[in-house]
Amino acid sequence: MFGSKRFDRFRTCRVAFPGTTIAIRATMRDSLPAHITLYLTTPLERTERMLREVIRRASIEVSEPYPLVLAAPITDDELHGLLVEMGTTLSPTEQEMTKCWMVLDGAEPSHAQLMQAQALSELISWSDSQWLADILESERLCTHFQPIVWIEKPEDVYAYECLLRGTTAGGDIIPPARLYRAAGSTRMLSQLEKAARSTAIASAAQHELDTFVFININPSSFSVSDLDLAELFRRVEQHGLAPDRLVFEIVESERIDDADTVLHFMKEFRRAGARIALDDVGTGYNSLHMLSQLKPDLIKLDMQFIREVFRDAYKGLVTAKLLEMARELGVLTVVEGVETEAEWRWMLEHGAELAQGYLFARPAANPPSPSFAPSQERASTPR
Description:
The chain is of the alpha/beta class. The chain has 13 helices and 14 strands. The chain has helices spanning 4-16, 45-57, 76-89, 92-97, 111-114, 120-137, 176-185, 189-206, 226-238, 259-271, 285-294, 313-329, 341-349; strands at residues 35-41, 63-66, 69-75, 99-104, 118-119, 141-150, 157-167, 173-174, 212-217, 246-250, 275-278, 298-301, 332-335, 354-355. β13 (332-335), α13 (341-349) and β14 form a beta-alpha-beta unit. α2 (45-57) packs across α3 and α7 runs antiparallel to α8 (189-206).
């Protein structure tokens, strides 16, 4: 926390601050001028130091024109990147307690509009919504593919998983974590998920994949209506994909709140001929509960069960029991995150059917062929 003297000074500074400000309220289509001055003020000394460091790392000049107030002259293009860094560096509480406002080129902030200063968290959400809306409207989403291979014959591809990526206006790849972070903070997760599924379907059809195709379904955005399902399968039909080659993968099963709704749509997917996979089985109670509810065709074991499993007897026992349970249920198992031959050999010896990971291929825009060639010598699993 902060000392009382600093807080009293902070309050006095805010009330007596001179100048003219513009509030950070905008619609999705509003645009900012080319040059802006971003003002920030916080009662937390630690937060102020962190803000200075973030601004300096971005090679932006920072000044203190008034007590406890930082000023950073930036361009419209620099704003989003700077706010992304602030959002990842500061805690939610620090973002909430930092107040900010922007002024146009050369203008001075005024007392008349000072009280319209908003929390930094609101500016970050506003910027994320602008940024993500532009990506969706410009159709700058793309799909990368990663193969899922047979354990016994890792050169043979069982399926490709469709993995979401974005692209900047300059063509650089935007990682999915950044897209989902922006979607989560701006309540645009449903729009992002819908666009991601459409992109995956179109991309899979474009590459004429003759394998199964995994498409992710996130239950935290599961508000798909019957009409949306009809639209989804119309897209599948329009692109010439066979529904019985699709596998809808339920990701983040720990976040499923409305199991009945999920079950309803899983039945509709199955009715259309698609298969169901459940991700991250074993990582929490809810995933095991959903296993009994959904009765999936496939389950995925998270990489935490795979990483150096041959060195950890406790982990090995848990993973072996999960594989045994899947076999008894007649469910195919996909082990994720396989990165070494030793991990692959352990899974082979313990009856896993399918595998996915960097050992075989990294995700790529063009569906990659597996590159792993097991050594000829079938050495025993390391201990």
